[in-house]
Write a structure and sequence with these properties.
The complex is a heterodimer of chains A (about 750) and B (about 140). Chain A has 20 helices and 26 strands. Chain A has about 750 residues and is an alpha+beta fold. Chain B is mostly helical. The chains are: A alpha+beta (about 750), B mainly alpha (about 140). The interface between A and B is large, with 62 and 57 residues.
């Protein structure tokens, strides 16, 4: 709802051909508290938007392009509100010296938060420019409209444009969020599948990633870390390596060890040689991986905490005729396994440290580096440059600190630091292993009357930032005088992510959820796409199928029976309809179909998927044939972008479900390359169809994390449908499936 | 070029010739991000020493086409928006271009097999398959 604006017209002539109109917006404007959080934190319009003399408009965001298409979506929002042709929008990189600070790019909230801020800022900018134009043309603003940045008077060009009005000046005003954005009915850029603005560079070999940064005098660096998990550097023979061709220097600070060379292959060779000429002393053992999932119950943890407890008075107190069910589910540690090993470029010029990183949080990384290096934040600039998809907290921040520490030893020379594939697998923080136990009762009407849910998981966030959690960075622990590692273990906050989606959205008369927070981390853990939602939804949706089977009910109908949310019902029905009737298997393999549903975080995107699989009873091999999904993200900014994220989420989660677990021995992580950590390949990729339910009148949610949990459950449900055997522990490897089939056979 | 003959082609292409197409993904010939064509055949530049390609014509995505004159595979990747992060894309494009050169009308199975050595972690496979099919259909 817009409010009536008072405009005072004080006109200043400023430069040739430029007119700056000071417009003050009456304080009918939205009260400060009603401003979206990104605008509260960054209230100046000039922080968000600039009209450039070259007839483009730049927008700044605090959110990073991770491959999810956010730059394109935000450009669409800005272009829509400004009535500008889409190609005129430039999306500037996240730069701590210039960009708004909006928190890390996590949780699938970029459209919600940055999109909302940019929408309001752009609407207000357009309004101010039109007020300008009205004053200059001496006409009522009501007669004005805009087409591709040109001001129209009664629909005809009046000779003014955004560029003529502002030249190269700024707005010099705060965003009040009092100008109503465009009615969604009038959208013609938002809601369309504009092509991604970043893809041409990636397809044509133009610079696109942090690895493509080249600077005069740049040196190449590699870090040297041991094969064993946690170890102290006890000795290193640097003399052998410093003589190698091209080696500029060796950086050694405590256990932090790195090498700088003129050429990249020289750095790699020198790093390999350093590793062979270094001695490390392990200081702890890992538990054996075969202790999972029970391991989660044996590690140190906090007292169990009931995080949700709802109980409605029963219509009739009936204790007869209730069938009880219980089951335990688990998932292992899962790796981000990004296609590009983490990398960063850093330059120390004697006064300022600049770090280019594919971090999800440039401001937080700046703070963490400041803490570790004991440098004021004002002397550090952190600039986002893309990496491969990170899917959460991978090695990006660590590579940033590594590069910074190395750069500090060689003033004036930019340093490009790239992790090896082994570094990335060994050192990245994984998605935590999780164990879940559920028990529930079905009444005589085949409805769930009580539901008791317990989950055991480590933290799902050890992200670094300034202050104590800078200790989450690897090099901060390796260097001499390491930071106290208090942040790693003394987690008091409940919002650690493991309980994401632990509360089922279903309307059970009684539901209790208990968190068993595991405070001991034998393996390094942090945020992986979906956080706790993956394991929790896998467990809930597998168990719902077990209950449905117990009720003799169709799995979709059984879920709908327990859902009051109409958007939830709608995605389930849409997925079911899209899937149609399953074809009969044309093969000798067992065919099955499974369904699953979730609303991410119970507040974000709605998603349902029906998956068809075939199981080879001889090998236990599962082939996922096709997936039919339906998603509701509220207002869709870019339909193809949503579809892309959902397809990707389904395929990635199919890989997690069928193949993935981080392997480790008591000495070290054993998943070190793509052979020892296989992921889904083209030969095994299913067909995927995604239908989108667009609700332009509702706020937008992100689509990036909606598919993970339901996909795993739908596959497990399909396997149960195909074979009659329920497998509750991920991954669903051929060995596990064969063992389950064998014991089912012997049980008969 | 001031590089040793034993230098892997990938680093010479990226650092001496300042090309961006071939990418470092593993350095172990396991992921395909470094794929370039050597006389039309896909090779893993991360493990190929310069000495081995001394007399060979090397093609990267930069050599296939550009914004003004895209190769049919590049045009198809744009049309199908066949990327999420895009890091694997140039390797995929090279492998696909080589496939279509030797097999202009591949079956879906043939495309999957030809690209099976190229990894995509984002899960863009279905779009990449559509793009390759589209490129095959669009080529004379």
């Amino acid at each position: 709802m817009s409010t009536r604006l008072e405009v005072t017209r004080r006109v200043f002539l400023q430069g040739i051909g430029a007119l700056a109109v000071q417009v003050s917006i009456g304080r009918h404007a939205a009260a400060q508290g009603a401003l979206p959080r990104s605008l509260q934190a960054n209230p100046d319009l000039d922080t968000w938007l600039r009209v450039n003399a070259d007839e483009t408009v730049s927008i700044w965001t605090g959110k990073a392009e991770l491959g999810q298409g956010i730059r394109t979506a935000l450009a669409q929002i800005a272009a829509e509100e400004l009535d500008l042709g889409f190609p005129r929008i430039r999306v500037e990189p996240v730069d701590t010296s210039r960009s708004p600070s909006e928190g890390r790019t996590t949780g699938s909230v970029s459209i919600e938060r940055s999109g909302a801020a940019i929408r309001l800022a752009a609407a207000e900018a357009r309004h101010l420019l039109l007020q300008n134009a009205a004053a200059r043309l001496d006409v009522s603003a009501a007669r004005l409209s805009v087409s591709d940045g040109h001001v129209l008077v009664d629909g005809r060009r009046g000779g003014l444009s955004y560029w003529a009005l502002l030249s190269d000046a700024g707005f010099d005003t705060r965003v009040t969020a009092s100008v109503a954005p465009k009615n969604p009915n009038l959208h013609d850029i938002v809601g369309t599948s504009r092509q991604r603005i970043d893809l041409p560079a990636k397809f044509f070999g133009e610079p696109a990633f942090v690895h493509d940064l080249r600077m005069p005098g740049m040196l190449h660096a590699r870090v040297v870390r041991p094969a064993v998990d946690s170890a102290r550097l006890t000795a290193v023979r640097t003399d052998v390596v410093s003589q190698m061709q091209g080696v500029v220097s060796i950086v050694n600070d405590g256990s932090f060890l790195a090498v700088l060379a003129e050429r990249e292959e020289q750095a790699i060779a020198a790093a390999d040689a350093l590793r062979e000429n270094a001695s490390w002393e392990p200081f702890r053992e890992l538990p054996g991986e075969n202790r999972l999932p029970q391991l989660m119950h044996e590690l140190q943890g906090f007292d169990p905490e009931v995080i949700f407890d709802r109980s409605e008075p029963a219509a009739e107190a009936r204790s007869d005729g209730i069938r009880r069910f219980s089951a335990g589910y688990s998932r292992p540690y899962i790796a981000h396994a990004s296609m590009s090993p983490s990398a960063a470029v850093a330059l120390w010029d004697g006064a300022r440290l600049t770090v280019w990183s594919h971090t999800q949080g440039a401001f937080e990384l700046r703070g963490a580096i400041a803490t570790v290096l004991d440098l004021p934040e004002s002397q550090i600039t952190c600039i986002h440059a893309e990496g491969a998809g990170c899917y959460g907290h991978n090695g990006a921040d660590d590579a940033g600190l590594d590069a910074a520490m190395i750069a500090r030893t060689i003033e004036g020379r930019p340093v490009r630091l790239v992790w090896s594939r082994e570094d990335e697998f060994r050192r990245e923080p994984y998605g935590s292993a999780t164990s879940v136990r559920i028990s529930a009762g079905l009444d005589a009407a085949d409805r769930v009357i009580d539901w008791d849910y317990h989950h055991w998981s480590c933290t799902h966030s050890t992200r670094p930032s300034g202050g104590t959690s800078a200790a989450n960075l690897l090099a901060s622990q390796e260097k001499s005088n390491p930071l106290p590692d208090s942040a790693l273990y003394r987690v008091q906050q409940p919002h650690t992510g493991g309980d994401r989606n632990a509360i089922a959205l279903y309307a059970f008369p009684q539901q209790r959820v208990t968190r068993h927070f595991v405070s001991e981390h034998p393996l390094r853990v942090s945020a992986l796409r979906g956080l706790g939602a993956h394991a929790n939804v896998f467990a809930i949706e597998s168990f719902m199928d077990e209950l449905a089977a117990g009720a003799g009910a169709d799995p979709v109908d059984f879920r709908i029976r327990h859902l009051v949310d109409s958007r939830a019902r709608a995605v389930l029905e849409a997925a079911r309809e899209a899937a149609g009737s399953g074809g009969t298997a044309d093969t000798e393999f067992a065919a099955g179909r499974g369904v699953a549903f979730a609303r991410y975080k119970n507040t974000s995107a709605y998603f349902a998927v029906v998956m068809d699989v075939e199981v080879n009873p001889g090998t236990g091999g599962i082939k996922v044939i096709r997936a039919h999904a339906a998603v509701d993200v509220g207002q869709v900014i870019n339909p193809d972008g949503v579809r892309n994220q959902i397809e990707g989420g389904i395929i990635q989660s199919t890989s997690w479900t069928l193949k993935e677990s981080v392997r480790f021995s008591t000495a070290s992580v054993e998943s070190v390359d793509w052979n020892s950590y296989p992921i889904l390949r083209f030969e095994d990729v299913p067909e995927v169809e995604v239908s989108i339910i667009d609700r332009p009148e509702l706020p937008s949610s992100g689509a990036g994390e909606a598919a993970q949990g339901p996909t795993s459950a739908a596959i497990a449900n399909a396997v149960a449908d195909a074979t009659g055997v329920r497998i509750r522990d991920l991954p669903l490897t051929p060995e596990r499936v064969s063992a389950a089939l064998a014991s089912a056979t012997t049980a008969r | 070029m001031d590089a040793d003959a034993s230098t892997a082609l990938l680093y010479a292409l990226r650092n001496d010739l300042e090309l961006n197409g071939p990418r470092f993904g593993c350095g172990l010939a396991q992921c395909g991000a470094c794929t370039v064509l050597a006389d039309g055949t896909p090779i893993r530049s991360c493990v190929t020493p310069l000495a081995a390609v001394a007399e060979t014509e090397i093609t990267t995505v930069e050599g296939l086409g550009n914004r003004d004159a895209p190769h049919p595979v590049q045009a198809a990747f744009i049309a199908e928006q066949a990327a999420q992060c895009g890091y694997c894309a140039s390797g995929m494009i090279m492998a696909a271009a080589a496939l279509l050169q030797r097999s202009p009308n591949p079956t879906d199975q043939q495309i999957r097999q030809a690209l099976n050595g190229n990894l995509c972690r984002c899960g863009t496979h279905t779009r990449i398959l559509r793009a390759v099919r589209r490129a095959a259909e669009s080529s004379p």
